[in-house]
Specification:
The protein is of the alpha/beta class. Helices cover 56% and strands 11% of the residues. It has 2 domains: 122 residues, Rossmann fold, CATH 3.40.50.2300; 92 residues. A 5-stranded parallel sheet has the order 2-1-3-4-5, with helices on both faces. It is globular and about 60 Å long.
């Protein structure tokens, strides 16, 4: 018999966490009530998780601590479907948040709380095999990889700028190289988003090829080999 899918629920309000567990009765749920508990679960059990629901604010303040958990998962299990849950959506673009953290969707608490059917529908999207659900998960996985690669490129560019300030003459070449790489990467990302939007059949291969194109090496000379 196949085991129930294992979901991590990160929610600082005990009653809300239990409500999610009750609504998702046919899943195996693991509840974490604060950042420390959540990080312990993802560091010790990440490979065993099938999905995650992560509250944005894990204290009474608008601390956005849930982003730490989302970032950890993004960088280590980009394929793991995850939702952000919140009663106070952050200011700015929700689309940018999805891109930065590879979130499938955001479950927002309304005046009457969370709808049981709404919760089940959104969680079901993490596992549904419909074309729409597969595409949404592919976008989240792609954005997870893209965010990590972008951060790596930015680190290379910053290191080159520091080298220039330290008088390292080779850093001028490095800066030019990594700046050009960043421009190429941004173009590649936009092309990938356009391609994925057309709902191609080979989503996994497209993402694998993208990741393969951006396996960065330590030095420009090595990257050109």
């Amino acid at each position: 018999m196949t085991r129930p899918r294992r979901l991590l629920i990160v929610e600082n309000e005990v009653n809300v966490a239990k409500m999610f567990a009750d609504i998702l009765y046919d899943y195996q749920t693991i509840i974490a009530l604060n950042l420390e508990e959540a990080m312990r679960v993802v560091t010790e059990q990440l490979a065993d998780l099938d999905g995650a629901l992560i509250d944005l604010h894990l204290t009474d303040r608008l601390d956005s601590a849930g982003l730490e958990v989302l970032a950890y998962i993004r960088d280590r299990r980009p394929d793991l479907p995850r939702l952000m849950i919140t009663a106070s959506p952050p200011a700015g673009s929700q689309e940018k948040m999805r891109q930065t953290y590879g979130i499938i969707d955001t479950l927002i608490k309304g005046a009457d709380g969370y709808s049981a059917n709404g919760v089940r529908d959104v969680v079901g999207m993490m596992f549904d095999q419909s074309a729409g659900a597969l595409l949404r998960r592919a976008f989240a996985q792609f954005e997870s990889h893209a965010a990590k690669i972008q951060r790596n490129l930015m680190q290379r560019t910053i290191a080159a700028r520091r080298g220039i300030r330290s008088g390292e003459h080779t850093s001028y070449q490095d800066l030019e190289y990594w700046t050009a790489k960043m421009e190429t990467f941004e173009t590649d990302c936009e092309n990938m988003r356009h391609t994925l939007s057309s709902a191609p059949a080979d989503l996994d291969n497209l993402i694998s090829d993208f990741v393969g194109r951006w396996q960065l090496t330590a030095h420009p000379a090595e990257a050109d080999k």
